[in-house]
Amino acid sequence: MEIRRLVLPGSGPAAPQDTAALCARLARLYDGGACAVVCDAAAVTAPGLADVELLARLRLAARGRPLRVIGAAPALRALLDLVGLVELLGEAEQREPPRGVQEGVEPDDLAV
Fold this sequence. Notes:
Elements lengths: L1 E6 L8 H16 L2 E7 L8 H14 L4 E4 L3 H9 L30
Helix pairs in contact: 1-2
């Protein structure tokens, strides 16, 4: 079980050619036997929508295989939360219980 690391560039907003290259690299990592990939976003210090798009495209390129973002600055975390990609950080959304936790229903609860 091999977990590979993909480092995101931090020299300004992600350019379309960077996005295409990183998506291709991600596909090669999975094709090469990686069971999961961790994206290191520590270099992304002033995130914008281009960086969010990059991460969204990486998630699509992963095709359901495990992909997690580490080292995200608070601004990037906030953007990912805003657009609904907070699960890439390995955290539960605010309105959802953590994975593996089931809400109980009492027999006398009223139907909503």
